[in-house]
Amino acid sequence: MIRFGSKLLLGSVVVLLFLTLTQCTVKKPEAPTWTTQLTVPVVNRTYAMEEIVDKIDEDGISMDAEGSILFTFSEEIDPVVVDSSELTIS
Predict the structure, then answer these.
(1) Do the domain assignments include residue 57?
(2) 41 domain residue, yes or no
(3) What is the per-residue pLDDT across 76-85, written as a single tens digit (0 to 9) for each?
(4) Domain interval for residue 50
């Protein structure tokens, strides 16, 4: 019976020693840091699309009478020649 009591005492000491050595430590307090993106309106104004198109003043961008925005681009391309022997009607 003495052996059981000494084993229990030794086991308890080992467990308490383990818990004491692995306890949490208090770290030095630090100020929190974070990264955030912030969108702030700079101007409190509504722009009409016609005003924006006029301000851009590009050759290919315009507005028609109905208020639709048009983008035009023209360029000369090389002609494509198809041999008449390749054309068939089926």
Answers:
(1) yes
(2) no
(3) 999 988 888 8
(4) 46-74
**84-to-60, 78, 79 alpha-carbon distances in Å:** 38, 19, 15
Report d(CA 4, CA 1) in Å as an integer: 5
Q: Does residue 59 form part of some domain?
A: yes
- Assess contact for 58 and 52: CB atoms under 8 A: no
Contact 61, 53 (CB under 8 A): yes
Residue range 5-55, pLDDT digits in tens:
788 888 888 888 888 877 777 778 888 888 888 888 887 888 888 888 888
Angle made by CA atoms 8, 9, 12, in degrees to the nearest 5: 85
Q: How many other β-carbons are positioned within 10 Å of the β-carbon of residue 63?
A: 14
Residues 6+ away with beta carbon under 8 Å from 53: 61, 62, 63, 69
Backbone angles phi, psi at 46, to 5 degrees: -105, 130
Q: Please check whether residue 29 lies inside any domain of the structure.
A: no
